[in-house]
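Subject: two folds for Thursday's group meeting

Dear M.,

Sorry for the delay on this. The cluster queue was jammed most of the week, so I only got both jobs back this morning. I'm pasting them in the order they finished. Each block is the input sequence followed by the predicted structure tokens. Could you check whether the formatting survives your parser before we put anything on slides? The first protein is the one we discussed after the seminar.
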Amino acid sequence: MPDIVDIAVNTEGFETLVTAVKAANLVDALKGEGPFTVFAPNDAAFAKLPPGTIQTLVQNVPQLARILTYHVVAGKLMKADLAKVNSVISLEGSPISIDCSDGFEVKNATVIAADVEADNGVIHVIDNVILMG
């Protein structure tokens, strides 16, 4: 089974995320044993950011890495697992609110594809980039 990075690289719609993960030097970490739960913004999610945001972040690697690790949680948490909690703690260290009462919401994002299994965890595709705070 492919790992989280392999799925992102080989799935249409994740070009921006893959570029950001490479720029932040997180490829090896996300290819690691894990398991990880990744809330993966698709290209349309990144396109919603203000113009120039992505270019600015790619030039500020520590901030980019912080934002990307906010989208990752330790452990393999399927939608059914997340439905039992109100929040999880990201690898960045901040909480991410979870709401499965009417659909599947992660902070300010809607999960548009849940439970994409990988060798080292699971991916939930989201429609917005989530930010700390």
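Second protein, same layout:
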Amino acid sequence: MSLWLSAANRAANTGRGLAMSATRRQRAAAAAAVAKEATTFWTRAWRGATTPRRSKNR
């Protein structure tokens, strides 16, 4: 009985580890996407605040 429970615990822990790894990867990817979007938004907002100067050679 002890061997059977040990094998069951090993299988459960393997599944738990795989699920936790997938969750960690998804969380990291989501955080990276949010950071990229925020950086892009603020960079474009900052660039849009300044108006380009016209050339005097017209």
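Two things I noticed about the second structure. The chain has a mean pLDDT of 89. The chain has one helix and no strands.

Cheers,
T.
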